[in-house]
Amino acid sequence: MSARGGAALDLTPAPAAGRPLSILLLEDSALDAQLVAAQLEEGGLPSTLECVPGRAAFTAALAKGKFDLILSDYNVPGFDGMSALEAAQAVCPDTPFLFVSGALGEDRAIELLKRGATDYVLKDRLERLGPSVRRALREAEGVRLRKRTEEALRRSEERYQLVAHASFDAIWDWDLQTDAMHWIGDATEEVFGFPLEEVAADAAWWRRHIHVEDRERVLAGLQRAFDSDDDRWQDEYRVLRKDASYAYVAAQGCIVRGASGGARRIVGAMRGITERRQAEEERQRLVHEAQARVEFEQQLIGIVSHDLRNPLAAILTGASLMLRREDIQPWHAKAAARILSAAERATRMIRDLLDFTQARMGGGIPVEAEPCDFHALTSQVVEEARTTHPERTVLVEQTGDGQGAWDSDRMAQVLSNILGNALKYSPEDTPVRVESRGETDALVVRVVNGGEPIAPELLPRIFEPLQRGTRVGRSERSIGLGLYIVRQLVLAHGGTVDARSSAEEGTVFTVRLPRVPSRETAAWRASGQVRPPEEPHVVAASDAGPGAKSSS
């Protein structure tokens, strides 16, 4: 259909093997719709797109068809993205919903993700559409698989309950008229720890062995079952064992009623479920940890977007105004240019950190390799470090050919993180040495600093996220992602990074980068996978001494 009409618009990319994706696209711009279709085709995602321009057509499409994916612009005349998301969640809550918009601020994007959107892609970065769609489809398939598994488990449990009507480990027969309670089978000892001959033949013994915190609830539940028309009763509670420990049990019984309908007898069975309850408690613990991690990510995004962007904008504005002054002195101009360059790089780093924080549970950091002189890049980063740390001595040694294909911004980020780490955790009266050496097929960078070595127990974990070293005499507000980001960026270039630390040698970070991407790395970039191929990094801790250092 026309992008603003009401009939079908054929934007289907060329089909590949297997069924094409069925995608609903809310977009009032025919040109933007064609760009989305072209990007899907370029990304190897054969699809059948149904493009709708507004609320009525979108609602009708949701009602009549089942879609694999929903793509939506945020700003559609008479219809906003939040309303579209709510409408889709009401009809097909399990269908992935991605925003493809040209006007979507970070605060709004975060809110949409909280409300249930799977992801968002900006129209000026449509190259992310393919990887985002693949990730969304994988996550949706995982949800569907989990639900199928849970449904199968529920049905299996239901069948098990029907078959094992009263066939738990310990069998009992309770005469409600006399309060006599007979236990059958040696398996009673497995539940209570008492031999069968030591178990009293009356219900009072059983009541006494119910945990005092569970007793009132269990007996009240039994009484409700007796007073109702139910013929079944079941509960879970704790019982006191012979060794004075408590065990969780699951009990159920079949109520036998007299001619008047009153309960006269209940026959049931009981089995220990302590291990299951412990597993459930462990699962709950893991769920709470996962929730805490999600809350941390949201807080981190808020801190970066709100607390850092405003002061950086002020720095950029101030440095730009200084450079525009006609009477500026040369050395003032040079300082302002360095401030401007550093602030711009910091802004890019914040942008990258936001992307990384959003995707760090399932994706790597994208890089764009272009011809680069690594020696020149190293000199630039070192010069910036000297400007911000005029009291420190930073030595540079460069040998061999520094030419290759790397993402210069990302590599500057790597060098800045490692060099900043070295300056932060080394004495001010000791030099920091930066070496860049060109080899036949690779370039090697070493950053060496003195001072106390990294503690042996910390060294193997310094490239993991949220790992921070201690700093004596200074308050550090780091979040412990610096070296983790370094490793991910190096891996994305097909390289390796390692660290070693000793009292004799100092702390040495070594980055090895191929001059051109390896076949595996190139294949990864072309495929749109979310994480670069993992290459092992070497961390030598055998000769490390006491102390603690790490990047923030």
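The record above closes out task 2.4. Task 2.5 opens with a second protein, given below.
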Amino acid sequence: MARNVLKVGRFYINPQQQLLLDENKNEIALEAKVQEILFYLFDNRDRYVSLEELHENVWSGRIVSDSAVRRTISKLRKLFDDNGEEAEYIKSVVKKGYKFVCDVEEEEKEEESQRPKNKFRIKWKKVFYSFLYIAFITLFIFIANTTFFKIDTLVQEHVLAVTRNPQNGDYAYIGYSPGDTRYQLFYRPDETRNDEILAFSHDPLLSPIFIKNTIWVGWQSIDSCGLLKVDIKTKKSSKISLNCSTLVHMSIVNNGEFLITMRPKQDDTYQSYLFKIKNEKTFPISDAKMETPFIASLSSDENILAMSYPSLRGSTLRLLDLKNNLQIKNNDIPEKIIQLRWQDSVLKLATESSLYKLDNKTGALEKFDVRTNLSKKTKIIDFSIYAGKVQVLHEEDKDTTQHLNTYIERSGHLELFNTTFLDPHMLPVLNDSSVFIDHQPSGYILKNISDQKILATSNNLIQVLTSIEKNKSIVIFKNNKLEIINKEKGTLQYRLDAQGDVKQAIPVPNMDALWLITLSPAGWQTLLWNYKNNSLSALALHERIRFFINGKLFWVDSRDGIIKSKSKSGDIIYFSKPLHLSPESTWIVSDDSYLWFTEPRPYVTDIYKIKVGSEQPPSIELRIRGLLDINLNEKNQLTLLLNQQPQSLLSSSFRLFSL
């Protein structure tokens, strides 16, 4: 039986199966949108295809920016090694669009009788190249083992989490495809370089775990979460829903159990559960509950539970003896802990900059990461333990430029309107355009834009909370102190020692006072600060934010996430269904009775919008990576501050370092 493929330059195309093949007719793995664009241009190669047509036919009308389409085409051109006007495969003309211009040749048919001879020749060629490959790998391993670590670059560039199979060293990792906003579960056998996509999802995936011949991975949707079980051999998957609204962390315990940290539905606290693989059920392992998300890891003998959660100055690490119901150790670390792993009876953990191990005798933390040749900008994303080694996933941040993006609402969706590139040393203040924060090696400096007058200095980041007194004064939070500063004179007017972490300061109508929304060990509470007479009083517990709409007072209850108010008789009135919140959520109230809020997810931030008093649930308006701040400008346009280019949700390169 004959087989036809089309030759295009140095490559081959199989139009029926929509495959791109290299010069040896091996399949080239493509991202979903890259593949769709390639074959749309190929099928319409007799004409130019406009950006609008690609929007409509490849993205099915879903709103994405033109730059997102151009970046996808750029990936295709990079694969073809096209170069500007001398493009061999894809040519672009302003106001016309893109065209596939490479000559297409139909390959001669291979007769059935010729195949045995061709196969024999191909086999010998494969044997020869396999020998060269093995020789190269042997030489590479010899050289790598003489150094402190070796580098293994993953095929998927946007890597979020990685783990190794403790039995055979196979990889499993989560990748993200910004072109079509898909999270993908990749698998690579240790003895090959071929990565397979086992599953994908538009909802975040996290924490892959190997259990015998299966991979378990967590999934998180807007208001529910669960597990995805994938059989490595058959590639079949099954989805398991858990009774949770938020899934925070997963870690392996043994071949029959793993640990899940989550927030159950109808609950406002987080807890760790043991997941039994045999009956696929969860069981709480201790009474330790937290109001804030935490990560956890259980020792293989199931005696010691390690918990880490954010503190005001970094992270707190707790060790619980479950057998005797005792707290063993509390460690405060001035960095954010991102991962915990048990290796035999030794706890190892990672912050964004260092690796630590816990001394079993003293309970003290010791650094064991001594790689001196890595840049200070290299950030740890994840790490995995395999065969006595620790493999660390790093992010190499090459682009320190920040981007100030403005979005406008069109047809019910947010669309990128404008982008401003910012000096990496100058941090804008979104709620007050008259000042900026200058980041110097010595610390942070708050300046007036008009005359460069220094208003405040601090070793730590300065937070500008709001402006008051007809915008002549500014409220800042630094070094656990609230300060009100006259922006024109640069003089300090009022100061207060803060109680807890002040998340927001809201001017009280018709009063020389501020509502302070704070998070302390006692939980969320609202304080009233009369700054002119320097008095501070507690107003309410369990308030995430309070605001006025049309002269009526509303607040969001931190216990159930419901927007509430009071009737004239003093009864509590509910104005929304429960909202799923985290301590890092940011809140903004617009002039048209809409409430905007952010919800950090694994690897991204979701931006929601809800009409106060509406029966409709909040809707996701935007999902974006690298969000630093959010605000509404005077035109009621949403303004975002990102630490990277817009729509490029993950732009850094990732590598694995094997210690």
